[in-house]
Amino acid sequence: MKPHLTNYLRTGFYLFFMALAAGIYFLETNHYAYNQALIVGTAATAIIVTCCIYEVLSSQIPKSEKIMWTLLLLVLNMVACLLYYFIRRKKIATAQA
């Protein structure tokens, strides 16, 4: 695991969940700022997915597993990112070492 990628992933997750909470609040109160929360959440998701894909493609795991994780990250975005971060990331990082 590369330390700077860990920081980007953690920051991206924080931004995503804060934007999600703010967007839900703004939407429920009919506030005009929910569009900005949506933009921040989308940007945070793009950061997270990009970091995850980079980490998967630069690892030493088998090619079929790289393809599977890349497709999952592109199609399922945040669901796959959460699965990757909490379940698979340590195994991929140990495969790099």
Describe the structure.
- By secondary structure, the protein is mainly alpha-helical.
- The chain has four helices and no strands.
- α2 (34-57) runs parallel beside α4.
- The longest helix is centred in the first third of the chain and has 26 residues, at 3-28.
- The chain starts with a helix and ends with a helix.
Defining traits:
single chain, 97 residues, mainly alpha, 4 helices, 86% helix, 0% strand, elongated
Brief overview, please?
This protein has 97 residues and is mainly α. Helices cover 86% and strands 0% of the residues.
SSE order and pairing:
Elements: H1 3-28, H2 34-57, H3 63-76, H4 78-96
Helix pairs in contact: 1-2, 2-3, 2-4, 3-4
For the secondary structure, the number of strands is: 0
**Distance between the ends:** 9 Å
Low-confidence stretches: none
Q: In this structure, how is the largest beta sheet organized? A: none
Please provide the ordered H/E string of secondary-structure elements. HHHH
